[in-house]
Amino acid sequence: MSVGIVMLVHTALGRAEQVARHWSAAGCPVVIHVDKMVAKRTFETFVTALSDLEDVTFSDRYRCEWGTWGIVQATQSASETMLAQYPQVRHVYLASGSCLPLRPVQELIDYLADRPQTDFIESATTSEVPWTVGGLDEERFTLRFPVSWKRNRYLFDLFTDFQRRFNIKRKMPNGILPHMGSQWWCLSRRTLSAILQDPERPTYDRFFRHVWIPDESYFQTLARQYSSNIESRSLTLSKFDFQGKPHIFYDDHLQLLRRSDCFVARKIWPYADRLYEAFLTDAAGAMKKTEPNPGKIDRIFSKAVERRTRGRSGLYMQSRFPNEDWENGVTAAPYSMFQGFAELFENFEPWLASATGARVHGHLFAMDRVHYADGQSAINGALSESPVLRDYNAKGFLTNLIWNTRGERQCFQFGPADNQDVCWRIAKDPNAQVSVITGAWAVPLFRSNLDFAEIRGIAANLQRVESEHMDILRSPYTKARVRIWTMAEFIEAPMEPLQGILDEIGRTKLRRLSEAPKMVDLSGFGQFLQNLKNQGMHPYLMGDFPLERGVAASPKAQRKPYLVQ
Amino acid sequence: MIRLPYFLEYYRKMGIGHFFFVDNDSDDGSLDYLADQPDVSVWTTKASYKRARFGVDWLNWLQLKYAHGHWALTVDPDEFLVFPFCDTRPLRALTDWLDASSIKSFSAMLLDMYPKGRLDEQPYQAGQNPIDIACWFDSGNYTISRNHRFTNLWIQGGPRARVFFPNNPEKAPALNKVPLVKWDRRYAYVSSTHMLLPRGLNQVYDEWGGEKASGVLLHAKFLDTFGAKAAEELERSQHYAGSVEYKAYAEHLKNDPQLWCKWSERYINWRQLEILGLMSKGNWA
């Protein structure tokens, strides 16, 4: 009893010949189908090259275009030849010219001899497995597809739409249930002959002729009718990318394939000399005994699909430039933006750095220059401190900064005197943790030595800018984690919000906040605000600030009223 | 001339089948050297580089005539292509995969390489790998915007923006390039290899968050030969936008600038560039 190999070949005939010789040397009869598209002379050279092998036969040639009935016809005819010519064959293995046996063929023969009635064919119902690519699953069977998708995509789509619109549907013949799966199977003689010799076969053939990609459903569906023992998996290792095209194996996959533990792999790049050399040797050298680790291949290829479809969050580069709001992550990592804290506390930056271990920058978007942590003139990625370079693309500056420093939490100060171009980008970024003490911009003014008229002008401008920014942060489009306090509210009880912010940043060194940052001296600040008001400029963002706030909170002892008796 | 031996060696090893050169009236023996190579065809012209739209017309004509139906790589002698798996797979593996994926153009952004210290500290010798000297680059200071007219990305930044154009970044040179194209006689490069027509060929980037496969052109411009080159080009005044780029170089070179900074990254291999996010394997695995 032995295994027969049906090989579908359309290119790289030299490699196909090598593989056919390998199968044949191990005692497996081979029936080869060569695509009708292959030139006659090339075909004849190929036949001559293999003419020294007795157990290699060629079947009738059909035109095999991707996704069409021709592939099924080719498989049927080659399988019929196999069953008729080689009565000793018990299992038929369907392979392609770019398949490569990884394990010694004898191991496959033994494996199948132990499971004489098992059919290895991946076969799942369409309704339960949504793995198809391109949107067609059930419709593969209910619609007709007489036009080639590869050559005539426009007509294909037109025809498909037409049938959908007029609700033209087909019924499965004899009420069979459609199944789909990998094209590459290994069926027992009993099941395969039952499919090929079924009196109803013309009915099925007529139906599947117009099914979309019938090579993934014809045998998969019909095997269910006859097989007593289906093992729904393919013995051929093949990985598909996000468009449903098979991944290709190269020389550098050698170790991976050695550890894959599969009998056959596809698809192999025809110029992968090392792979062909390594696996097409005699049984002794073929598979060095290595610990099988098939999971690794899976990981590598599913990561490739993930990279192509979702990409790395927060990366903007030559081949990944997502449209706004389609980024799958605006930035690469969580970060914190503080507004008003550095103004209200004297030592906020060093305090935050020591409390969290994060990198704490000053005003990154300040007009004079980029204030990096520790007064550096550049930062990871050679990002410059030049405000001109930054403002040339402020949003790109932010995403670059977060990408370059991934792995380390970034915190920075912001304020109404800074470049506001990034406000929307940050507001819409779920990675952003934004904490604002509104009105705190007035503190440096209050402590400055400017003329009051000048202060008044600056204050009016800053208040307008900050108010616009708060509108953005409160908009329904905001996805950042936003906390806003008025200054009055915040200084009532500063410890609680600070603790909350640190907890959210995580990696807090202190379990409980023991040391608070030092607040600037605010005595006279209430009066300062009142003076602004008196000048007609109403500062409202700091909240309700009592006139006497901060002046040593002990009210003057009231004299006891005299009692006149 | 001094650059040619290594250039040919590098790309022969990668599997380039035939080289096409345009020699713009060189006087350093390049023409004879190239004419002696078995796999090189060389054209020579005394005409103006500028009037040929900075050489693009020459290249388009050559590609129209000889590249139809082939994968064509268009590079300067100081540009070295790096693509995913280039240390284990030949260029043919990439182009076969691109063919199988129905992809017609492949992008490779220009990455300016520079030495540590003064540019003229280590003289370059013919046949030497220039990346051994100029082995540093900027990894994360590139700005990208869309060019809506041609749908390509416009990338600027790197050491040239950082050192030569800190006060007018909009004038910094473009770094986006699409050097590898399955050529068709209907195609044309518009401006250097920065963008192509028809515009679909410029869609080398994904807009929905995914990453397409891409490479990098290591740009070994900043060697000891650069000072002389900048002076010469300024004299010839044959470059883009009134040679504003070369004017800026001449201006800065007087002060002997350092391109290297503390945050410069030392080049190791393509995997490093991929991790840094300068190129991507896309779904090629």
How would you sum up this structure, described in words?
The complex is a heterodimer of chains A (565) and B (285). Chain A is α/β, with parallel strands linked by helices. Chain A is 38% helix and 13% strand. Chain A is built from 23 helices and 19 strands. In chain A, the strands form six sheets. A five-stranded mixed β-sheet of chain A has the order 3-2-1-4-9, with helices on both faces. In chain A, helix 3 crosses helix 7 and helix 7 crosses helix 9. The longest helix of chain A has 22 residues. In chain B, helix 2 links the parallel strand 1 and strand 2. In chain B, helix 7 crosses helix 8. A three-stranded antiparallel β-sheet of chain B has the order 3-10-5, with helices on one face. A three-stranded mixed β-sheet of chain B has the order 4-13-6. Chain B starts with a helix and ends in a 10-residue tail after the last helix. Classes of the chains: A alpha/beta (565), B alpha+beta (285).
Keywords:
heterodimer, A: 565 residues, alpha/beta, five-stranded mixed beta sheet, five-stranded parallel beta sheet, 23 helices, 38% helix, 13% strand, elongated, B: 285 residues, alpha+beta, 14 strands, globular
Task: Compose a concise summary of this entry.
With 565 residues, chain A is an alpha/beta fold.
Question: What does the secondary structure layout of this molecule look like, with pairings?
Answer:
The complex is a heterodimer of chains A (565) and B (285).
Chain A: E1 2-9, H1 13-25, E2 30-34, H2 40-49, E3 56-58, H3 69-85, E4 89-96, E5 100-101, H4 105-113, E6 119-120, E7 124-125, H5 139-142, H6 153-165, E8 179-180, E9 186-188, H7 189-197, H8 201-208, H9 218-226, E10 230-231, E11 236-237, H10 254-258, E12 264-265, H11 273-279, H12 283-286, H13 294-309, E13 335-339, H14 341-344, H15 348-356, E14 359-363, E15 378-379, E16 383-384, H16 387-392, H17 394-404, E17 410-414, H18 423-427, E18 432-438, H19 442-447, H20 452-473, E19 481-486, H21 487-492, H22 495-505, H23 525-534
Parallel strand pairs in A: 1-2, 1-4, 2-3, 6-10, 11-12, 13-17, 13-18, 14-17, 18-19
Antiparallel strand pairs in A: 4-9, 5-12, 7-8, 15-16
Chain B: H1 4-14, E1 19-24, H2 30-35, E2 40-45, H3 56-66, E3 71-73, E4 79-82, H4 91-100, E5 105-106, E6 108-112, H5 130-133, E7 136-137, E8 142-147, E9 152-157, H6 158-164, E10 180-182, E11 188-191, E12 195-197, E13 215-219, H7 226-236, H8 240-253, E14 265-266, H9 270-275
Parallel strand pairs in B: 1-2, 6-13
Antiparallel strand pairs in B: 3-10, 4-13, 5-10, 7-14, 8-9, 11-12
Helix pairs in contact in B: 7-8
